[in-house]
């Protein structure tokens, strides 16, 4: 962690294949021959589209085999029925899929096929930009421009003509605006994100939202306007706010309206997955990392009450760790105790 990582500018990202609850099987599949890997991938996809379900009032796909859903089943079997019932506040809701690794296709196919069974919209996060997260805890990403183009092409291809929302590259543009990403990478970043928008928009039923941080990070929305324009916001459907953060919905809406006026009146979506109690009071230390006492926010919906806010989404998967702080596991790992706390604190 560098000195510039603080509660305002850096948040953890789920950058692992836990996005679909069974992604740890990927390692085993990759270690065998091509035939074994294909069979393992088919098995994973088949498992992920079992038991289609969708809560009333949401158009988004619910993963029936998410870590939360698996935890509910385990607790019921082990006699923790009351905890299992509380955790259903997470398990029964739709949240985003973060395809990870060099081959995103199988995870998107699983979400695509599951969503098709309930005529739902899948929510996806593309998070593989080169020089990701300024080389910090969620560092990584594609090793070259050419590979990123190949990866985003596979990402888009596997959506096919199904309904999808794609949140494009969390942190990438805010890290340009706050100076965390070195200047020598800025032009490459604008170029690749702009190309990614164009590629994803070739899919007929895909909406694309560029990540634009949160109102407690880049406090002057004008600092994001030029990076968004340079990165293809004109061709995108809008921008995303509060990804993996805790800022109140009303503050995000106010900020989103100001930013929208600077980028052609584009619409936006807001991550409400963990903002039910707002952020942890105080701005020092690791207020962003697994803060105690937080709660789930508004359930995913397109009924936001604001004409510019297209949807409230659970982009960060509630219950997955922000990082190894406050007793938590590595970033992106399922943490049942923290998940239960979020659910219990929810009014």
CATH class: Alpha Beta
Q: For the terminal residues, how far apart are their CA atoms? A: 34 Å
Task: Please state how the strands of the largest beta sheet are arranged side by side.
Answer: 1-2-3-4-5-6
Tally of helical runs: 11
Q: What is the total number of structural domains? A: 1
CATH architecture heading: Alpha-Beta Barrel
What does the radius of gyration come to? 19 Å
* CATH superfamily label: 1, 4-beta cellobiohydrolase
Low-pLDDT regions: 1-53
Helix content: 25-40%
SSE succession: HHHHHEHEHHEHEHEEH
Secondary structure blueprint with pairings:
Elements: H1 25-31, H2 34-48, H3 67-77, H4 81-91, H5 105-117, E1 122-126, H6 145-159, E2 164-168, H7 172-177, H8 186-200, E3 206-211, H9 222-230, E4 238-241, H10 249-262, E5 267-271, E6 309-313, H11 336-344
Parallel strand pairs: 1-2, 2-3, 3-4, 4-5, 5-6
Helix pairs in contact: 1-2, 2-5, 3-4, 4-11, 5-6, 6-8
Describe this structure in words.
This is Glucanase. Substrate binds at residues 98, 217, 245, 288, 316, 320. The protein is α/β, with parallel strands linked by helices and 347 residues long. It has one domain: Alpha-Beta Barrel (TIM Barrel), CATH 3.20.20.40. It is built from 11 helices and 6 strands. It has helices at 25-31, 34-48, 67-77, 81-91, 105-117, 145-159, 172-177, 186-200, 222-230, 249-262, 336-344, and strands at residues 122-126, 164-168, 206-211, 238-241, 267-271, 309-313. Strands 1-2-3-4-5-6 form a 6-stranded parallel beta sheet. Strand 4 (238-241), helix 10 and strand 5 form a beta-alpha-beta unit. Helix 3 (67-77) runs antiparallel to helix 4 (81-91), helix 5 (105-117) runs parallel beside helix 6 (145-159) and helix 6 packs parallel to helix 8 (186-200). The relative contact order is 0.15. Residues 1-53 have low confidence and may be disordered.
């Amino acid at each position: 962690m560098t000195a510039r990582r603080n509660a305002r500018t850096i948040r953890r990202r789920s950058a692992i294949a836990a996005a679909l609850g069974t992604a740890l099987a990927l390692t085993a599949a990759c270690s065998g021959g091509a035939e074994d890997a294909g069979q393992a991938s088919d098995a994973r996809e088949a498992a992920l589209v079992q038991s289609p379900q969708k809560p009333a009032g949401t158009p988004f796909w619910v993963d029936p085999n998410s870590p939360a859903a698996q935890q509910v089943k385990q607790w019921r079997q082990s006699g923790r029925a009351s905890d299992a019932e509380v955790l259903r506040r997470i398990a029964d809701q739709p949240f985003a899929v973060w395809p990870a690794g060099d081959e995103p296709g199988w995870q998107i196919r699983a979400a695509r096929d599951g969503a098709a069974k309930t005529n739902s919209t899948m929510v996806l996060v593309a998070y593989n930009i080169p020089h990701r997260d300024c080389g910090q805890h969620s560092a990584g990403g594609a090793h070259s421009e050419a590979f990123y183009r190949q990866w985003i092409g596979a990402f888009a291809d596997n959506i096919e003509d199904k309904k999808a929302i794609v949140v494009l590259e969390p942190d990438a543009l805010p890290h340009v605006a706050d100076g965390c990403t070195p200047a020598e990478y800025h032009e490459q970043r604008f170029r690749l994100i702009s190309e990614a928008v164009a590629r994803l928009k070739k899919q007929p039923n895909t909406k694309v939202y560029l990540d634009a941080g949160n109102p407690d990070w880049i406090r002057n929305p004008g600092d994001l306007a030029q990076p968004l324009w340079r990165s293809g916001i004109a061709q995108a459907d809008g921008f995303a706010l509060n990804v993996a953060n805790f800022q109140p919905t009303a503050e995000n809406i106010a900020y989103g309206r100001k930013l929208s006026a600077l980028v052609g009146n584009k619409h936006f979506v807001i991550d409400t997955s963990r903002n039910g109690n707002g952020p942890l009071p105080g701005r020092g230390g690791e207020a962003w990392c697994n803060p105690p006492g937080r709660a789930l926010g508004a359930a995913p919906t397109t009924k936001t009450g604001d004409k510019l806010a297209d949807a409230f989404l659970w982009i960060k998967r509630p219950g997955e760790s922000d990082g190894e702080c406050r007793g938590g596991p590595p970033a992106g790992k399922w943490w049942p105790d923290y998940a239960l706390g979020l659910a219990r604190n929810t009014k």
